[in-house]
Write the structure tokens for this entry.
Amino acid sequence: MPKILTVRDLSVSLENQDVIKNVNFDLEPGESLAVVGPNGSGKTVLLKTLLGLYPYQGTIAWGTKVRLGYVPQKIDADRHLPINLQNLLEAKADIQKLSRKQLDATIEAVGLLPESLKTPIGHLSGGQFQKALIAFALLGDPNVILFDEPTASLDELSEEHVYDLLNDLRKTRGISIILVSHDVSLIPHIANTVLCLNKTAVCYGPPKEVLTQAMFEKLYSPSHKHVHHAHVHHAHDHNLYG
Amino acid sequence: MADTNLYALILALAAAVATGLIGGFALMKRMTLAGDAMSHIALPGLGLAILWNVQPVLGAAAALALGALLIWKIEKRADLATETTIGVIFSASLAIGALITPSEDIIEALFGGAEPVSIITLAIYLLLAAAVIIFVWKERSRLIISLFNRDLATVTGVNISRLNLSYLLAFATTLVLGLRFLGALLVGALIIIPAAISRQFTHTLEKFLAGSAIASALSVAAGFWIAATFGLDTGPTIVSVAAGLFFLSLLKKKA
């Protein structure tokens, strides 16, 4: 089966600063790739670069017939905007020439309540807002979704709902997922591949093999400054999830 | 004469609906003050047109179109907030405009006049107003998503740069529509105030935009009537009525 995404020697510089250097990875159909790393490691920039929002060097090759959905990191919606979720979903449906049926199916799939649709976007609770962003991403039937910290501002219960939804999407619709997350403990439940990023790729492989205590220390240790090449690490002594 | 007065009123009402809609988005884009300032860019154009014996509105339109392009370019290059950019251009325009506009014409250029309106002028202005209204209707979805989040808009397929330029040009057209009866100093008020009035009453987008257009048309109609009845200048009367409605709206609760 052809790959959904191939990334080779990807480097991104913003304001003359190297943010990402020589990153390589692939995404297969139905795969869930989690990108982990400390603050400022380039996770969000990587996602935005994949979406075409930043200039880059190297190769980003999306497969044919890829339809992208994007759930950004928590947006501080302007509380004064008289715009509700219904307006946003209808606007996207209008731009992408989607039918009313597709719109209603998305609303149902995410489990949005009618009152959430009519509430000004800046007045939604954290959980409702995240659902709204997911609904916006799902509209248009994407086969790849990029999530940037989808549960960063949620309580545990809402967080579980979001991850259940992600797993459900993958299983029922075969959607490929790229997920940026700070919460390493949940990764084995939601991802089958992990990319540890700290400007460069520090590890890349199945969670159980690469998310070892040693890798964890390497990735988050304050003394860790630069890693010059991508490595693929295998099971080590203290496997966090083994 | 009665006909030309009626034409002037129709022209002003059409301009009011356009300013109400454009103003609604200006308020949501947080560029209402920029809108007020942008109208002053018309002044050097008006001054040059008067000096060269050309239709003043043509000079104003050319200056505003150039101003819109300049603001768009500077915004893209320097990544400055729209209001900062427009603020710099506004100050320069006002200074240059004041220097080159003949002193006997400066009051009308700043506050508008009550020149008779011919049927041809009316037809041209109605076409311009229709163009602005159609722009808002056709681009509403792109405008809405870009207001919410620029990255999401880009991923959805919105060309933000092109949308910004189109909006600035529609904004400039709206200013041209209002210049004739409000002048360079007051036309911005008809973009800010009706949207601000409408925002006091509603949380929903559809009602907000409709309310902004209605508040604008109401201010113009009442302003025309009061000015004609009491022999006052039309432009300042319209803006005073709009301001009065705004202060009244502060007493209301949102529906």
In short: Residues 4 and 118 of chain B are 6 Å apart (CA to CA).
